[in-house]
Amino acid sequence: MEENTAYTQTGNNAAARIPQLIAHMERVIRGKRPQIEMVITCLLAKGHVLMEDNPGTGKTVLARTLAHSISGKGEAGNVLFKRIQFTPDLLPMDLIGSHLFDEKNTDFIFKKGPLFCNVLLADEINRASPKVQSALLECMAEGQITVGDVTTKLEDLFFTIATQNPVEMEGTYPLPAAQLDRFFMKIYFGYVDAATEVEIYRNYATIQDNLEHLDQVLSLEDVLGLRKEAEQVFVHDEIIQATANIVRGTREHPEITLGASTRAGIAFLRCLRAYALVKGRSFVIEDDVQDIARSVLDHRLIYRNKEGRLKAFDQILQKEMDRLSKLKLQG
User: Fold this and answer.
1) What pTM was computed for the model?
2) Which residues pair with 120 in a beta bridge?
3) In the chain, which end has fewer C-beta atoms inside a 10 angstrom radius, N or C?
């Protein structure tokens, strides 16, 4: 397969600072480079990310670290960052905002809620009711919020990082399929390895200090420029075909009752382009497909049983990776 090997950068050299951003975040988030890369990939792909794992693994800290590493018009010169702790008694108006009566002007004014920001941390999103979860749908999909008959655009950069506890835990509501489909990726944070955990215990005070004194590696304009640059990353026709084959394969596999949609395929391609940029390339390679396919597609699928979940997607992906490998060997 032919590859376009030209490396492109934004005018302000923002692409060259992506490794610096990753290294900067690793000062706080130890032993989680793949997860950091996935979150940045979703950011540059104009998507949103869902992180699932048990409490205390660093999901919330990662979101805060990313927001504090981008300069903007928020507090302390950061991008506008809001954190919402989702609870069973949360109401949609707590996210969107509400109309308040202005006695001076004898009129109702709209007080914006926390959704009007650049980076939103939706913490433990599956602890809120489906009614509240659905309040996120329009802003994640369309970048706007409608209150009554008035539609208001969100910021040019609106990025949602949602965390959730495993659905088996008490007091949680499984996210509906329509909500899950709005997340470009679902990643599992997991515990760090034994050596990294010991290192964290030895240096937890330094790590906390790093979190409180983060530098701003990229600007808001840098991120918007990188999003445009990601759209220009080269994707070979055979990788586009592989994307289509994998997506269609999820609809045809006997162990999968609900396969991926065309929208999921578009999200897959956008993430491939952004992931290549994160890796320092202006072209997508076969390994990129292998690296991110499950994170992009798996949460959108409904399997017949637990056994099917363990093997069905791997079978689909491996079949396509074998096809790409043969094409490469043949030149």
Assistant:
1) 0.88
2) 82, 160
3) C
